[in-house]
Design brief:
Blueprint: H1 2-25, H2 32-54, H3 60-77, H4 83-89, H5 94-97, H6 103-128
């Protein structure tokens, strides 16, 4: 069961990454709300799926809580403006760290967490006949 769950979440991660990147690199194909907020929502869902991949038997509500705290920590670290941190954010890794603190991003992370949690409950119920809630 653990291995099957990991495969499910690996597939979700692999589907999620191109969607999130597409909102940044090809925004003209998305409605305005997704162009503006979609990348942050997809980031939160991808982190959720990654945590679930690592901990396939942990209750989903705990994964959701950990996910939101990780996303919030990533957002808060953007308030730190030391030169070395700014330089690090200007590298390719910077796409993961972001550039400026926005409260709207915290709302997007909450939406992404709830979306991923709901999708996880649904998929685990369908594929495994139960979700670890």
């Amino acid at each position: 069961m653990k291995t099957k769950r990991r495969w499910l979440y690996l597939i979700l991660i692999l589907l999620n990454i191109p969607l999130g990147l597409a909102t940044r690199w090809a925004p003209q194909y998305f409605p305005e709300i997704i162009r503006i907020y979609g990348g942050d929502v997809f980031s939160a869902t991808c982190i959720f799926f990654g945590i679930r991949f690592l901990y396939p038997l942990k209750p989903l509500y705990k994964i959701a809580l950990i996910n939101y705290l990780v996303c919030f920590a990533i957002e808060v670290q953007q308030l730190y403006q030391a030169q070395w941190a700014v330089d690090l954010r200007n590298t390719p890794l910077g796409i993961l760290l972001g550039h400026g603190f926005l409260w709207s991003d915290c709302v997007c992370y909450a939406a992404g967490t709830l979306l991923a949690w709901g999708l996880s409950v649904l998929l685990e119920t369908v594929f495994f006949k139960q979700a670890i809630k």
